[in-house]
Write a structure and sequence with these properties.
Chains A, B: It holds the Pfam family GST_N. Chain A is built from 10 helices and 4 strands, in the order βαβαββαααααααα. By secondary structure, chain A is an alpha+beta fold. In chain A, strand 3 and strand 4 form a beta hairpin.
Chain lengths: 209, 209
């Protein structure tokens, strides 16, 4: 049976799941989903993810979707393998969970649109909307101000160790760090150090290789 | 020390945290935050939630924000009290987590704007934007089609028992169920039965009383 990831390395959310798998050193099969032909919007893919989004995930009989839920499953189900991505203490894990929520709801709201405008649109030969970029850069700057403050208190967002609260940010950071939005990260010394640190992780290097 | 919730019963995210506390039967103090004077956008509140959003939460020395992270902490830290809101089995919990993510990222994206247009704006004497309502009703209908299908397989979104995957939906459902958007829930028999079931829970009745 084994683990199957249905997705593509171009998809941010697929990258998130691959990062968790490489951190754990778990074997898996990447089953390519052809977005160009809309394979993700048709059966049989819709039986794996009814929202028609990438990725979907199988571990034997278990079928999951939503990349953050998949990464969290990998962290708990394979707790004894590779690098820990969660913490055991309930109060410490609550802090990690706060910053996982911040990523999903605050960071993503500002940065995912920048990834679309600054990375995907040029990739597809589409024109970037500069007004939208400026609006979302302003939003991202406010979020990163809070990250800068947080990262003066602890090395990672969730605490002293690397966790899903950091990992979940990697795909968007990868996409926009080398665009005009990269200056927002570079202008904040703790945020920059954090980005450099988490992007240098061997597991992440495998994802982007 | 005890548990303090900084927020107001008008805030959807505060309601989510109160629902979890009442399910667990835990004593707490609701510390009112005066949104009308912008108390949530100034110190000292910003030291509790740097994003200036409601609610914030204290349990002794532990300080948390992001309502879904708080509800999850309550579920794990007080696992032995009141009604269970999570499940122990890692694979079953992964399914619960999928639907928690669906609530936060898919349902909220469609429905929170409807809550604003159809519930909060009338409350504040502002005019509802019908075009925005129609756009988001169409989005919500697609999400609820997937819920309807899911709820033919299991009584609750996360599985056979009530969990955070259901609870987290309650505040928005409460706000829009008795508006024009209510027809979207009522038109889907399994969704309607699920809404009726979870809204009738004694803990939720305490929140809205």
């Amino acid at each position: 049976m084994g683990i199957k990831v249905h997705g593509t390395k171009v998809s941010m959310c697929t990258m998130r799941v691959l990062a968790a798998l490489y951190e754990k050193g778990i074997d898996f099969e990447l089953v390519n989903v052809d977005m160009a032909t809309g394979e993700h919007k048709k059966p049989p893919y819709l039986s794996l993810n009814p929202f028609g989004q990438l990725p979907a995930f199988e571990d034997g009989d278990l079928k999951l979707f939503e990349s953050r839920a998949i990464a969290q499953y990998i962290a708990y189900a394979y707790a004894d393998k590779g690098n820990p991505l969660v913490v055991q203490d309930v109060k410490k894990m609550a802090i990690v969970t706060v910053w996982m929520q911040v990523e999903a709801l605050q960071f993503e709201a500002a940065a995912a649109r920048l990834a679309w405008e600054l990375a995907y649109k040029p990739m597809f030969g589409m024109e970037t909307d500069v007004a939208v970029v400026e609006e979302h850069e302003a939003k991202l700057a406010k979020v990163l101000d809070i990250f800068e403050s947080r990262l003066t208190e602890s090395k990672y967002l969730g605490g002293d160790t690397f966790t899903l609260a950091d990992l979940n940010h990697l795909p968007i950071i990868k996409l926009i760090y080398n665009t005009r939005a990269g200056k927002l990260f570079e202008a904040r010394s703790h945020v920059k150090a954090w980005c450099d640190d988490i992007q240098a992780r061997p597991a992440w290097q495998k994802v982007i290789s």
